[in-house]
C-alpha cells in the first residue's frame, strides 16, 4: 500500500497544479506508444484510411498534370482532334469523382475509428476512477477528475479528428507535390526543394511567436471574464458602496489590456499570412523566370511550367495546415500522458485474490474492531489499539467532539481505508477477506448531506438498478414516510430530480436516502450525522423513519443532537480516538462524566459549551 | 429597426477605417485579378515565338509585383478591418459594463449573472466576428469576384465561355448556405452531448461515496457509458455531413475546370481563343473558388450574429428600475430619523407581499435589532433602505423627504452595508476593506480590522493586508470572509450601518467580542443588526420580530423574553441549537 500512495503522490506532482501557466513537457514517445495500442485493433480501418487518402490525393494532384498534357500535347502542338481533349475531360471527371468519394470515405472511416477509440478511453478512464479508493478522491479535487474525463479526452479526440488527418493528408500531399514536381522537371524541382527548409523555418519561428501572442490574449481574456463575473455577482455591493465609477475604471484597465493583446495578435496573424503569400508569389515569379528561360531554350515545355505554377500554389496550404496542428498535437500529447498517469494509479484498496463472496442475508451483523491502529497518511494515528465489539442488531449511539474519530471509525468499517494494525471483522470475518462489492452491500451509510442524482424519484431510490422493481421502491418510501411528499410532487414517483435535488428540502432528501436503505437492505447501517441540518419538524419524521430502518439491523448512529441517540442500546463517547465512556443513557447520566456534562450543556449555559468546543470550530 | 442601436454609434466612429480598408481591398483585388492575364499574355507571346529573355524577366517581375501588391495592400486592409472589429469588442464591452452598473438588483436576480456574462462575452464576440470576419471576407471575396469577372470580361475570352466555366462555381455559395446550418446544428448537438457527459462526470464524482456505499459502480459506469456513446453518435452524424461538404466544394471547382477545359479546349483548337486566353481562364476559375466559398460563409455568419446583436440591443434597452429623481436632494442620516409608514412591499411577480404594513421609526443614534425566520422579510427591509428595490411612494421617509427624492449617492454614501455572504473581490485584503473609502490610511484600515476581529488573521498571512484573495490568491474561511466584510462596512464610518446577518459564521466567543466592539464604535450612530442568533442583538435599544413580513413583536430583549411569542420561542430553540452549532 505505501507504494500505491507514493505513486498517487508522484502522479499528483506531475499535475499542472499552478493552473495553465506552465505546461508540462509533452512526452511524445510514450504518448504515441499508448495511442498505438489503441489503434492496433483498428489497424484494418487505418490501413483503409491511408489507402483512401493516397487515392484521393493522387486524384486531386493528377488534375493539374492533365491540364499540362492538354496544353503541351494537344493545344500547344495544335495536333489531334477534339477527341483527345474530350478524353482528358472524361479522365478529369473520373479523377474528381474519385477524389470526392475517397475523401468522403477516408473522413468517415477515420472518424469512426477515432471516435470508437476516444469512447473506449473515456469509459475505461471513468471505470478506473470509480474503482479508485476514497483516499484518492480525498486527495484529488473533483475539478481535476472532471478535467481528465472531459477536456483531456477531448484533446485526444482532436488528435484523431484533426492532427492525424492533417498529418496524413497534408503530409502526403506535400510528398506527392514534390514527386510530381520532380517528375515534371528535376531542375525546377530542386530549386523548389531548396525553398522548403526556408519556408519551414519561417513558419516555425512565426508559429512560436504567434503562440505567445495568442496565449497573452487568452490570459487577459480570462482575467477580463473573471473580473466581470465577479463584479456581476457583487453588483449589489458595488451599488451599495457607490463604487460603480471606481469599478468601471478598473474594468477599463482590463478591457484596454485585452484590446492591446488582441491588436498584437491580429497584427502577428496578418503579418504571418501575408509573409506566406508573399513567399508563394516570390516562388512563382522565380519559377516563371527560371522556367521561362528554360522554355525559351526549349528545354522545358510550357505546360510543365503551367503545372508547376499550379503546384506551387497548392504547396503552401499543407505546410500552413501542418504547422497549425502543432499546438493541438502538443496538448493531445500532454493529455494522453495525464490520462495514463491516472490509469496507472492503483486503487489503494483492492480485493484480495482469495476474497470470498458472502450472501448478504446470511450476515448476522456482529462487528469487532479488533485492537485496530489507524491514522491518515502522514498524520498521527487516530486510533491506537482500539477495541470495540458490537452485537448483532444492537443500536449504538456515538457522540464526541470534532476530530474525535467518529467518522474515521465508520470509514474503516466500510473499508474506505485499511487499518494499519489489527482487524475489523464482521461476523468474525476480516473485512479485508471479503469482496468490496459484498461488503458495501452489507454496510449501508447515510450521510449528513444526502446526494441525489439527475433522474426520476424511483431511480434515485433504487440507484438506477433496474432489477429493483417499482413496487419495491414505492413500498420503501411508504415505510419511511416519504410517500406523501412524493405524491405531492408533480409527476409523483416519476418526478425528475436534478443533481442537488432541488425542489426538496434537506429533510425530504434525507427521507429518500432512508428509502434507499430499505431497498438495498444492508445488514449494518451507519448514520453519519444524518439528522443535522434539519428543522425540528422534519427531524421528527426522520426519527420515525430511523426506527423503521434500524429494525433488525445493527445500527450505528453518529449524532450531535443528543435526542437522536438517547434511546440507543448503548452510547459510546469518543474522545481523541478512545472510547472514554460506554453505556445506556441512564447509566452514563449516573456516571456524571463527560456525557452527563454534554447533556447538561445541551439544556442551557451555552457559554460553557462554547468554551468546551469552541476550539474545534471554524 | 431596433437592431441599429449598438451599431450606429460604432460605425459613426469607425467608418473611415472601413472606408480605407475597402479601398485597399478593392485595389488589391484589381491588382490580383491581373495575375492570370499576365500568364495568359506570357503564353501567347511564347506561342507566337516573339518572347525574349528580357520579357521573361519582365514577366517574372510583373508577377512578383502583382503578388506583392495584393499581399501588402490586402493584408493592410485585412488588418484594418480586424482592428475595427476588436474596437467593437472594446467599445461595446465598455458601454455594457457601465450599463450593468446601473441595473438594479431585481434585474440580476431575475436574469442570473451567467446569462448576462454569456451575453457580455459570447454575443459581443459573435457580432464582432461578423463585423470583422464577415465584412472582411465579404469585402475581399466580393471585390475579388467582381475583379476576376471584370478582368475576364475585358479579356478576349468570349462571354459564353466564361458563363459556362463559372456556372458550376455558382453552386458553391448555395451549398455553403445549405450545409452551414445543418453542420452547425449537428455540431451543436456534439457540444451538448459533451456538456452532458461533463455534467454526468461531475455528478458521479460528487456522489462517489454514495456509489461506493451502495456498491452500484457497474450501474454508474454503464450510465456514463451511455453518455459517451451519445457523443460518438453525434460526432459521426456530424462528420457525415461535414465531410461531404468539404469534398463537394473542390468537386465543383473541378467541374468548372472541366467545363473550361472542354469548351475552352475546343475553342482554342478551333482558334477562336488563344492558348493564352485558355490558360488565363483556367487560372481565373481556380481563383474564384475561394472567394465564392467565403461568400457562403459570410451569409451564415451574418445570420448567426443577428440573434446576438438583437440580444445585445435588448440588453442595452433595459431601463434601470431605480433612477434618481430630477430634483433629488441630499439627506442627513446622522440627524434625521427614518420613518416607515404602512410599508408594504412585494417583489415583482411574487404573489405574497414580502413586507406588510410596517410602521417603524428609526431614530438617529439608536441600535435596532431585527430577528425572524428565513423568509420573514429581514433582508428585504435592508434592501429597501438601500433603495436596491423601490418602496411604494411615501412609505419610507428620511427626515421629511421621501426616499425616492433623495440623491442616490448621498443615501448610499451614508449607509454602511454588511451582507451575510461576506462577498469579497479578488483583490488584496486591503483593497477589499477600503472598498467604500479608497483613500483610507493604514491606521484606519487596521482599526476597522481590529474592531471586526479579523486583524490577527490578516497579519498572520505572509503578505498581511496586501494578501491577494480569490482565484489567484488565498481563500478565506466563511467566518474570516464575514469579518473582513464587516471591517469593510465599519471602515466607512457611515451614519447608518446595516449588518445583515453578518456574523452568522463567526463562533460565539468572537461574536461576543464583535458585539462589544460594535457597541463601542457605533455609540451615537444608527445601527441596524439583522440576525438569526439572538445573542448578536440582545443589546439593541429596540428589537422587532418579523414574521411573514409583519412586525409580530417589538420591545427590548428583556421585555421580549418575558412575553410569550416567537422571540421567546426562538430564544429557547437557540439555546439548544447554539449547543448544536457550537459542538460542530
From TrEMBL, chain A:
- According to the UniProt record, where is the region Disordered? 1-24
Q: Which UniProt keywords apply?
A: ATP-binding, Cell membrane, Hydrolase, Membrane, Nucleotide-binding, Protease, Thiol protease, Transmembrane, Transmembrane helix, Transport
* All residue ranges annotated as the ABC transporter domain in the record: 367-601
Q: Where are the transmembrane segments?
A: 45-62, 82-105, 163-182, 188-209, 282-309
Compartment list: Cell membrane
Membrane topology note: Multi-pass membrane protein
State a single Gene Ontology molecular function. cysteine-type peptidase activity
Instruction: Give start-end positions of Polar residues composition bias.
Output: 1-10
| Entry keyword annotation includes Oxidoreductase | no
According to the UniProt record, one GO cellular component term is: plasma membrane
Organism field: Paenibacillus methanolicus
Where does the UniProt entry say this protein principally localizes?
A: membrane
Q: Name one Pfam family in it.
A: ABC_tran
Name this polypeptide is given:
ATP-binding cassette subfamily B protein
UniProtKB/TrEMBL annotation, chain B:
Q: Where are the transmembrane segments?
A: 15-35, 61-85, 138-154, 160-177, 238-259, 265-285
Spell out the PROSITE patterns in the cross-references: ABC_TM1F, ABC_TRANSPORTER_1, ABC_TRANSPORTER_2
Recite the UniProt keywords alphabetically.
Answer: ATP-binding, Cell membrane, Membrane, Nucleotide-binding, Transmembrane, Transmembrane helix, Transport
Which InterPro entries does the entry mention?
AAA+_ATPase, ABC1_TM_dom, ABC1_TM_sf, ABC_transporter-like_ATP-bd, ABC_transporter-like_CS, P-loop_NTPase, Type_1_exporter
Give the Gene Ontology MF terms in alphabetical order. ABC-type oligopeptide transporter activity; ATP binding; ATP hydrolysis activity
Q: Which CDD domains match?
A: ABC_6TM_TmrB_like
Q: Which Pfam families does the UniProt record give?
A: ABC_membrane (PF00664), ABC_tran (PF00005)
Superkingdom of origin:
Bacteria
Q: Which residues form the ABC transporter domain?
A: 338-573
Q: Where in the cell is it found?
A: Cell membrane
Name the membrane topology term. Multi-pass membrane protein
Cellular component GO terms held in the UniProt record: plasma membrane
Enumerate the spans annotated as ABC transmembrane type-1 domain: 19-304
Q: What name does the UniProt record give this protein?
A: ATP-binding cassette subfamily B protein
Q: Where does this protein come from, organism-wise?
A: Paenibacillus methanolicus
Mind giving the lineage of the organism this protein is from?
Bacteria, Bacillati, Bacillota, Bacilli, Bacillales
Amino acid at each position: 500500500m505505501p507504494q500505491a500512495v507514493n505513486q498517487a503522490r508522484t502522479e499528483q506532482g506531475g499535475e499542472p497544479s499552478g493552473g495553465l501557466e506552465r505546461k508540462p513537457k509533452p512526452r511524445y514517445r510514450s504518448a504515441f506508444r499508448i495511442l498505438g495500442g489503441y489503434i492496433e485493433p483498428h489497424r484494418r480501418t487505418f490501413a483503409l484510411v491511408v489507402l483512401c487518402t493516397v487515392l484521393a490525393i493522387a486524384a486531386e494532384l493528377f488534375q493539374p498534370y492533365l491540364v499540362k498534357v492538354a496544353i503541351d500535347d494537344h493545344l500547344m502542338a495544335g495536333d489531334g482532334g477534339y477527341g483527345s481533349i474530350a478524353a482528358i475531360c472524361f479522365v478529369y471527371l473520373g479523377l474528381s469523382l474519385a477524389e470526392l468519394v475517397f475523401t468522403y470515405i477516408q473522413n468517415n472511416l477515420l472518424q469512426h475509428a477515432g471516435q470508437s477509440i476516444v469512447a473506449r478511453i473515456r469509459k475505461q478512464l471513468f471505470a478506473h476512477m470509480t474503482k479508485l479508493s476514497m483516499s484518492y478522491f480525498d486527495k484529488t479535487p473533483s475539478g481535476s477528475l472532471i478535467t481528465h474525463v472531459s477536456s483531456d479526452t477531448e484533446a485526444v479526440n482532436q488528435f484523431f479528428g484533426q492532427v492525424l488527418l492533417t498529418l496524413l493528408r497534408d503530409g502526403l500531399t506535400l510528398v506527392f507535390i514534390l514527386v510530381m514536381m520532380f517528375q515534371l522537371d528535376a531542375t525546377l524541382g530542386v530549386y523548389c526543394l531548396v525553398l522548403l527548409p526556408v519556408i519551414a523555418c519561417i513558419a516555425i519561428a512565426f508559429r512560436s511567436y504567434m503562440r505567445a501572442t495568442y496565449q497573452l490574449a487568452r490570459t487577459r481574456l480570462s482575467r477580463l471574464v473573471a473580473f466581470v463575473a465577479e463584479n456581476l455577482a457583487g453588483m449589489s455591493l458595488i451599488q451599495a458602496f457607490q463604487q460603480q465609477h471606481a469599478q468601471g475604471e478598473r474594468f477599463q484597465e482590463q478591457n484596454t489590456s485585452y484590446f492591446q493583446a488582441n491588436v498584437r495578435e491580429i497584427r502577428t496573424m496578418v503579418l504571418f499570412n501575408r509573409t506566406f503569400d508573399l513567399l508563394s508569389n516570390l516562388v512563382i515569379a522565380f519559377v516563371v523566370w527560371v522556367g521561362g528561360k528554360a522554355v525559351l531554350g526549349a528545354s522545358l515545355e510550357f505546360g510543365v511550367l503551367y503545372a508547376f505554377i499550379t503546384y506551387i500554389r497548392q504547396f503552401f496550404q499543407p505546410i500552413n495546415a501542418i504547422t497549425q496542428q502543432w499546438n493541438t498535437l502538443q496538448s493531445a500529447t500532454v493529455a494522453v500522458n495525464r490520462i495514463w498517469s491516472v490509469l496507472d494509479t492503483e486503487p489503494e484498496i483492492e480485493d484480495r485474490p482469495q476474497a470470498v463472496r458472502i450472501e448478504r442475508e446470511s450476515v448476522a451483523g456482529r462487528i469487532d474492531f479488533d485492537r485496530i491502529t489507524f491514522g491518515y497518511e502522514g498524520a498521527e494515528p487516530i486510533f491506537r489499539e482500539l477495541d470495540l465489539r458490537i452485537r448483532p442488531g444492537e443500536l449504538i449511539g456515538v457522540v464526541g467532539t470534532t476530530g474525535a474519530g467518529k467518522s474515521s471509525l465508520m470509514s474503516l468499517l466500510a473499508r474506505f481505508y485499511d487499518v494499519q494494525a489489527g482487524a475489523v471483522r464482521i461476523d468474525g470475518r476480516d473485512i479485508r477477506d471479503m469482496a468490496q462489492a459484498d461488503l458495501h452491500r452489507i454496510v449501508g451509510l447515510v450521510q449528513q448531506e444526502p446526494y441525489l442524482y439527475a433522474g426520476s424519484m424511483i431511480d434515485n431510490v433504487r440507484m438506477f438498478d433496474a432489477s429493483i422493481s417499482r413496487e419495491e421502491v414505492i413500498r420503501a418510501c411508504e415505510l419511511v414516510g416519504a410517500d406523501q411528499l412524493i405524491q405531492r410532487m408533480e409527476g409523483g414517483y416519476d418526478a425528475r430530480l436534478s443533481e442537488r435535488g432541488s425542489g426538496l428540502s434537506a429533510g425530504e432528501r434525507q427521507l429518500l436516502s432512508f428509502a434507499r436503505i430499505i431497498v438495498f437492505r444492508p445488514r449494518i447501517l451507519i448514520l453519519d450525522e444524518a439528522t443535522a441540518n434539519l428543522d425540528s419538524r422534519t427531524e421528527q419524521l426522520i426519527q420515525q423513519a430511523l426506527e423503521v430502518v434500524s429494525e433488525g439491523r445493527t445500527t450505528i448512529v453518529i449524532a450531535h443532537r443528543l435526542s437522536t441517540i438517547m434511546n440507543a442500546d448503548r452510547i459510546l463517547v469518543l474522545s481523541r480516538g478512545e472510547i472514554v465512556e460506554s453505556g445506556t443513557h441512564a447509566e452514563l447520566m449516573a456516571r456524571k462524566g463527560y456525557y452527563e456534562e454534554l447533556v447538561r450543556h445541551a439544556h442551557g449555559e451555552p457559554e460553557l459549551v462554547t468554551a468546551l468546543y469552541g476550539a474545534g470550530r471554524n | 429597426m431596433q437592431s441599429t442601436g449598438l451599431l450606429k454609434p460604432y460605425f459613426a466612429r469607425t467608418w473611415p477605417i472601413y472606408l480605407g480598408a475597402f479601398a485597399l481591398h478593392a485595389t488589391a483585388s484589381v491588382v490580383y485579378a491581373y495575375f492570370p492575364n499576365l500568364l495568359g499574355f506570357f503564353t501567347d507571346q511564347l506561342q507566337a515565338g516573339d518572347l525574349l529573355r528580357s520579357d521573361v524577366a519582365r514577366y517574372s517581375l510583373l508577377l512578383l509585383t502583382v503578388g506583392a501588391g495584393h499581399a501588402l495592400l490586402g493584408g493592410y486592409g485585412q488588418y484594418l478591418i480586424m482592428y475595427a472589429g476588436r474596437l467593437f469588442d472594446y467599445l461595446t464591452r465598455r458601454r455594457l459594463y457601465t450599463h450593468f452598473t446601473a441595473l438594479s438588483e431585481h434585474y440580476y436576480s431575475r436574469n442570473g449573472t451567467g446569462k448576462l456574462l454569456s451575453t457580455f462575452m459570447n454575443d459581443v464576440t459573435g457580432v464582432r466576428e461578423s463585423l470583422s470576419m464577415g465584412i472582411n471576407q465579404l469585402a475581399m471575396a466580393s471585390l475579388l469576384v467582381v475583379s476576376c469577372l471584370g478582368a475576364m470580361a475585358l479579356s478576349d475570352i468570349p462571354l459564353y465561355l466564361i458563363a459556362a466555366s463559372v456556372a458550376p462555381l455558382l453552386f458553391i455559395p448555395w451549398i455553403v448556405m445549405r450545409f452551414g446550418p445543418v453542420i452547425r446544428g449537428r455540431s451543436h448537438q456534439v457540444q451538448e452531448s459533451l456538456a452532458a457527459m461533463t455534467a454526468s462526470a461531475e455528478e458521479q464524482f460528487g456522489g462517489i461515496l454514495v456509489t461506493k456505499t451502495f456498491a452500484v459502480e457497474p450501474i454508474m459506469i454503464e450510465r456514463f457509458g451511455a453518455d459517451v456513446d451519445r457523443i460518438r453518435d453525434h460526432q459521426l452524424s456530424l462528420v457525415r455531413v461535414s465531410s461531404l461538404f468539404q469534398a463537394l466544394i473542390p468537386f465543383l471547382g473541378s467541374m468548372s475546370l472541366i467545363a473550361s477545359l472542354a469548351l475552352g479546349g475546343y475553342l482554342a483548337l478551333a482558334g477562336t481563343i488563344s492558348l493564352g486566353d485558355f490558360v488565363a481562364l483556367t487560372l481565373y476559375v481556380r481563383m474564384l473558388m475561394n472567394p465564392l466559398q467565403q461568400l457562403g460563409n459570410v451569409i451564415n455568419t451574418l445570420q448567426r450574429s443577428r440573434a446576438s446583436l438583437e440580444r445585445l440591443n435588448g440588453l442595452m434597452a433595459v431601463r434601470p428600475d431605480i433612477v434618481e429623481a430630477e430634483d433629488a436632494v441630499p439627506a442627513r442620516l446622522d440627524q434625521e430619523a427614518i420613518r416607515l409608514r404602512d410599508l408594504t412591499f412585494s417583489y415583482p411577480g411574487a404573489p405574497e407581499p414580502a413586507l406588510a404594513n410596517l410602521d417603524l421609526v428609526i431614530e438617529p443614534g439608536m441600535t435596532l435589532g431585527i430577528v425572524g425566520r428565513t423568509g420573514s422579510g429581514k433582508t428585504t427591509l435592508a434592501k429597501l433602505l438601500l433603495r436596491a428595490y423601490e418602496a411604494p411612494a411615501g412609505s419610507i421617509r428620511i427626515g421629511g423627504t421621501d426616499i425616492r427624492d433623495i440623491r442616490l449617492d448621498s443615501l448610499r454614501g451614508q449607509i454602511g452595508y454588511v451582507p451575510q455572504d461576506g462577498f469579497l473581490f479578488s483583490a488584496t485584503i486591503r483593497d477589499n476593506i477600503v472598498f467604500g473609502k479608497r483613500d483610507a490610511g493604514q491606521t484606519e484600515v487596521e482599526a476597522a480590522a481590529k474592531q471586526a476581529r479579523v486583524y490577527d488573521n490578516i497579519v498572520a498571512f505572509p503578505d498581511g493586508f496586501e494578501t491577494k484573495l480569490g482565484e489567484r490568491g488565498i481563500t478565506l474561511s466563511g467566518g474570516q470572509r464575514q469579518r473582513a466584510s464587516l471591517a469593510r462596512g465599519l471602515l466607512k464610518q457611515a451614519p447608518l450601518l446595516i449588518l445583515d446577518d453578518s456574523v452568522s459564521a463567526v463562533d460565539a466567543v468572537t461574536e461576543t467580542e464583535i458585539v462589544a466592539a460594535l457597541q463601542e464604535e457605533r455609540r451615537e450612530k444608527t445601527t441596524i443588526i439583522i440576525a438569526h442568533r439572538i445573542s448578536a442583538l440582545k443589546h439593541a435599544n429596540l428589537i422587532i420580530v418579523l414574521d411573514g413580513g409583519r412586525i409580530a413583536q417589538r420591545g427590548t430583549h428583556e421585555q421580549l423574553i418575558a412575553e410569550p411569542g416567537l422571540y421567546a420561542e426562538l430564544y429557547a430553540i437557540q439555546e439548544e441549537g447554539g449547543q448544536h452549532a457550537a459542538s460542530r
